[in-house]
Amino acid sequence: MNWFTATGDDRHGDARGALVRILSTDRTRTAGAGVYLRGRTLLTCAHVVNAALGQRMLSPRDPGGVTLDVSFPVLSAATPRPARLVAWIPPRAHHLGPVPDGSLKWEGDLAVLELGEEPPPPVGPVRWLEMTRGQEVRAWYGAGQPFSYADARVASYDDGIGYLDGQLSGAAVDEGYSGGPLWCLADGAAVGLVMGRITAPDTALSAQHTVRRSWGLGWQSVLRELRRAGALPEPYLAALARSSAPLAGPGGESDAYETVRDMMVGPLHLLLGDPTARAAHATVLAGELGLRAPADGTAPSVADLAQLLTRTERALPTLAESLAPTVADDPRGRGELDRLLALGRLTGAARLLSVAEHRLLRAKFEHLCRTDPGLLHRAATAALPYLDLPHSLHAARLAPAAVDGVLRELETWPGDSSPVPDETPRLPALLRVVEYVAAETGGLACRALQEWSGRVAARLGIHASALRERRADAERWSQRSAPAGARILVELDRHAKDPADHYRCAVWRLRADGTAARAVTGTEHPRAGREIARLIREVAGGTEGAERGVALVAVSVPPDALELPVDEWDGAGVDEYIPAPLGEDFHLILRCPRLRRRSRTGAADLTRRWNARHRGDALRADRTVGGRAGLIGLLKTVHRDTARVLVQGTAAQRGELLPVCLVMGVPIVLWDRGPRAPEADPDLDGLTPDGPVDQLPERVRHFRVRAYADPRTSTRPALVWEDIEMPLPDELQLADPAEGLGGPADGGEGTERAT
Question: Of the candidates 696, 694, 691, 717, which has an alpha carbon nearest to the alpha carbon of residue 705?
Fold first, then answer.
């Protein structure tokens, strides 16, 4: 291919597109090198991290989640980016102990770093092959200067380690090379990492001394170490291992690629027979793939273009992405494009998604995995009910680093078996999973994923009705309801002379027909939070539906007790081993009907908003809404039907905004009552406030379990949930606390009137 050429720093030309410079903490020197794997993941040596931190080089001590400064020489070696240490495999001697100073060989010695965001092109992953004896390899200094290359030959490969001998000319592997890739020029792939060098003793050099000998860890050994230590998710490692295979094998496989290439020439002639159009589309394609296109307006030959499409990953769908709009109204052109895409499926390079489509979907899925690690597994299980899930999706919870492996597997899976109109292509498994993820997510994220799915489906020639049908399936699935567990209603109140942190309580069981039965009448004396929590647990355990699902406990509180930490009240008995905070074991929600009664239209507002809870996004009420008056204006106008409000701000700001929401009938209000700096925003993204509404209490419960277990997390979510289908405790005609003892509240069942 003469028209498509590598740029001077092309990632396919050598490994410098993946080379990483590791800087010392003071940014004054290069501590070593590293290699970009994929996504946001970098790999280097543990001793390079030690060198950057100023520690003893072969110290096995894990430095924890430190952040180092790194840069990409292919972009600018002088522009650092933060990278956090996420996995540590310490240097170890063969007998598994510490490595003594002066050792010439050791094991382990790997570190995985994670960037804050994915680097831009031309940074990109390299192809990997196993190290074998006789390979000619090249290494670079961490700063990546073109003249810093050091050439050597794998003279011996034994027990996972390759010994590298260099000629007595040019540069030699030295300090600052460790952790970088060993690039095999003949195979066009990296085969291992630079680890160390073997130097002559500090005496006069003689013919008996070893000179220019270094050593590296073979790629097969790197994978084994990463897998053994659990340093990266298995789907991620599996994707790395698969990328080790060459695009075309010897003999028959190479012939098959040539056959496919020749078959592509016909459709390409019909689609891009005009040299001007071919030059325009090819230039766009080259830019997406990180290749250089001539600036003289010439076009590549159809043969060159076909060669690129069969050999370069994502080249074909990327070209189809720019061609699809031009054939939208041309049935013959659409047919030729479909033929081209079908031929691409015969190669391992085409893939399903274009470069841009893959980049966007991976970013969105990685974000969703950070907020809801079980989302992809849950959606794929529902979207592909008759298929065994890909290996990458066997784990119920996925880390963001596993997303790339998931996408690579799903891209190869066939479409579903449902009928499609006019013999149009079937919906690929990946797009069906995307639709289910979108439906489960809701809000703006849902619309963004659906728009992405629609664009890809149109590019693939999928009939709009097929996509609409799968989208409707996903919507019905997302509205599923979990088995109803027990429902408990609790009324808390205080008299003026009650001890601090003590409350009078009454508890009701909600029957299956929606009526309430009083379970505990405790308004005659105040109780501590732990005692109330034990009462609630006892009632919940004996209530109809206790064996199904998670019980819902709705606690009605006075207006001045909305920040009460009811969810943290521990109901465990004195002999129980495991703590039992109410917020971990139940869907613990708050209610405050007294505030709503301060509005003449409060009941109607609540009903209208509750019935509209599945429509629209959550309103974020923070300092920008303009205080109490500004929030009232929003809820009266553009957010008249809004059912969800996320209140943000200090305790004083929340004290101003929360009553407005409840008086105006907002049924779902979420906020963080935990202590934090006044200027800090609440860390509630893990709750996905814009996600499926009816699952919010369960997401809050999961969040509380994690937050209570992590002493570093001060976030304490509080949730008001005013379900109009459940009677409210203080709408059962309780006595006014001001009446004191002996009032109607002491009368038991005779005072009960469900509304």
Answer: 717
